[in-house]
């Protein structure tokens, strides 16, 4: 499953500052059973808007991490909180199918 949220960077702070906190928290979160990686993307033409995507084996695995979260993760998140606005986008199932057109991204040039 995927857990996604939008991050809006407040004036006086930068996406790079947030990315530093993101990486530090993600390194700890990824030690939890069922964690499958994280991604942080910057919105085109809006460097102060990011989308964060965390991949998990299941919602239960993510919920287990949340219920027994390493206090260092909370400290990192709280340290960045005054400088960002976070809007959860939700939890999404992995796709039941992936459509790749012929000659898609793995095609030879």
From TrEMBL:
<dbReference type="InterPro" id="IPR011008">
    <property type="entry name" value="Dimeric_a/b-barrel"/>
</dbReference>
<dbReference type="GO" id="GO:0004497">
    <property type="term" value="F:monooxygenase activity"/>
</dbReference>
<dbReference type="InterPro" id="IPR007138">
    <property type="entry name" value="ABM_dom"/>
</dbReference>
<keyword id="KW-0560">Oxidoreductase</keyword>
<dbReference type="Pfam" id="PF03992">
    <property type="entry name" value="ABM"/>
</dbReference>
<protein>
    <submittedName>
        <fullName>Antibiotic biosynthesis monooxygenase</fullName>
    </submittedName>
</protein>
<feature type="domain" description="ABM">
    <location>
        <begin position="4"/>
        <end position="64"/>
    </location>
</feature>
<keyword id="KW-0503">Monooxygenase</keyword>
């Amino acid at each position: 499953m995927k857990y996604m949220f939008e991050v809006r960077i407040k004036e006086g702070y930068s996406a790079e500052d947030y990315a530093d906190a993101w990486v530090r928290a993600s390194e700890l979160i990824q030690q939890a059973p069922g964690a499958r990686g994280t991604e942080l993307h910057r919105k085109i033409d809006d460097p102060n808007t990011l989308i964060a995507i965390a991949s998990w084996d299941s919602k239960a695995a993510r919920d287990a991490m949340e219920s027994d979260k390493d206090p260092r993760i909370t400290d990192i998140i709280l340290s960045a909180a005054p400088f960002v606005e976070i809007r959860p986008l939700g939890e999404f199932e992995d796709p039941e199918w992936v459509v790749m057109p012929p000659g898609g991204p793995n095609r030879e040039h």
